């Protein structure tokens, strides 16, 4: 009589071999699926340039509204990954600039005329944690003003998170 060692003759543990072979196949299928989703999606993971956004959203993010009589100049832009940076440019009546700044950012320091950091700026303001608009999300707003002529001012507006 022959002694058996716990399994009947002809029976193997095929399910162990199948599981060992199945795991790498599933990992490979998951990897192929992730690559296919990445290729077919319209998101560019390596995009680092600015994207155009509605100018109203840029101003709201910075706690502001477009002043009366102002006209947007060019596209407004969003840039960033973890920290957001928005920028906008607009022209407005020169006589209304200081009043608009005072009404929009009442708790900010007074606008400066020196040390703006921008060589063409005639006036600048930095406001931290603006909350003038319900959609405000910026932690810092920078406004620089260049007086183009006796009646017009070019305003460069930027708002960003830290």
UniProtKB/TrEMBL annotation:
Membrane-spanning residues: 12-40
Keywords of this entry: Membrane, Transmembrane, Transmembrane helix
Domain of life: Bacteria
Protein's name according to its UniProt entry: Putative membrane protein
Source organism of the structure: Streptomyces davaonensis (strain DSM 101723 / JCM 4913 / KCC S-0913 / 768)
Lineage: Bacteria, Bacillati, Actinomycetota, Actinomycetes, Kitasatosporales
